[in-house]
Amino acid sequence: MIGAIVHKELTEIRRDGRALGLLLIVALLLLLGLVTGLATENAREREVLQARADDAAVFAEQGEKNPHSAAHFSRMAHKPVVPLASFDPGVSSYLGQVIWLEAHYRNPAMYRAAEDAPELSRLENFSIAGVLTLVLPLLVLLLGYGSIASERERGTLRQLVGGGASPMGLLLGKFLVVAGVAFAVLAATLGLATGFSLATLPGTGYSGGDLLLRSFSLLAVYGLYIVCLTAVTLLVSTLVAEAKTALLLLLGFWVVTVVGLPRLSASIAEQVYPSPDSGAFWSDARASLEANRPPGGSEDYVAVEREVIERALGGEVREDELDGLALNRGAVRLEVSEVLGAEAYNAAFAELFENYDKQKNLRQWLSLLSPTIALQHLSRTYSGTDVAAHEHFSLEAEHQRNNIVRAMNEDMMLNGAGQSFGYLAPPEFWETVPEFDYRPPPVAATWSEGARDLLILLLWGLAALGACAVGIRYRRAPG
User: Fold this and answer.
1) CA geometry: angle at 2 spanning 156 and 254, to 5°?
2) How far apart are CA 4 and CA 1, in angstroms?
3) Which domain holds residue 91?
4) pLDDT tens for each residue of 304-320
5) 176 contact partners, CB below 8 Å, separation of at least 6
6) How many domains does the chain have?
7) Ranked by mean pLDDT, which of 86-95, 192-201, 252-261 comes out on top?
8) 178-215 burial, b for 16+ CB within 10 Å, e for fewer?
9) How far is Cα 158 from Cα 307, in angstroms, rounded to an integer?
10) Which residues does 64 contact at the CB level (< 8 Å), separation at least 6?
């Protein structure tokens, strides 16, 4: 009987010009999102690869130069383009793409596309994930709002039940059709996005297996979103007497939970845990650095100094040997300053990202009112374009900065004894400075990151399905 119901519903969709027109509009919107996303990310990938090559060439051709001057000139850490950024760009356009690895400072990422783009280029943010999040609910509710209510209005609901269809079987058949059509659209879209993304893997640090796991994770959470939406749609269609009433109620649900609450949650989170002003952030970081820097000659300072020297020499040094070592003392002081400064800047950036986590945690509580918020978090997490992914890149770039500056300070320390800042490193030294080989976190790390949002989405799905089952029992007697 369920098979007959599914066949009947599919036949009605094929014959309904409005349903086919709606599917065509959705397909065109998703195609537009796919084309613009791929064009934007491919252009950025070319820019990153060219910028990397130019940066390496300029650094290697410095000639004879003081290492500390080169440490200020330093290198750039370019964030690789995430393959699935064409599906969901997330926060990539807002947190920056390049970090200047300068001596003495831990810099934030530069070149934020959202700030640099002119008004007419806002189409770049027209992503597949954005279209799916907004349009899939409309597709589901427009396909399903009359599933039960229209049958009741026409009097065919009594005939179906009288013909042997159980209320639960009838509901399940209609559920399978509405959810199946939406899931087919989702699977086709995500399949195309994944296929094109596989071509951009070289140079990104991602493997094909990791990309496929991310795509299956996205398919699962968007599929769960479809389950929630379909269950809510059929619940409303079951409880009301007329299809137009169901349509109005569901459109209201869409406006509140899909359009309104996600934007409102971001505003509330920013108000409760405001992001620090740039000037205030750097002022506080410098104040912390000065307040916690031990005075020269103190026990703490001498301990750091000894650690720096032992690391450069590759072995332990007795306390009575420190003053007699043939080292460039200016370089020693520079490296001690780097170690102390890195601690202060790391603490400041950790506090910044902790504030972002607080904002996300608050939005997660608000996602109990809207599954769309949880879906947005999961979409960015599995695509590798969320704040956590950027924090990982920022930390790895800071490790690279420490390695570069340390290499330059140690070269000056060991080879420039007695020359202070007059020491010049030979041209071939720049070839020995390590390159930045960024490896993004694997998808397994994102699963734990998105566990709470996934639980909330599961609760929404279970609650919607349970309410739908109760609703059909409550309205078992056709009107």
Assistant:
1) 70
2) 5
3) 2-474
4) 888 889 898 888 887 77
5) 2, 6
6) 1
7) 252-261
8) bbebbbebbeebbebbbebbeebeeebebeeebbebbb
9) 84
10) 424, 425, 426, 427
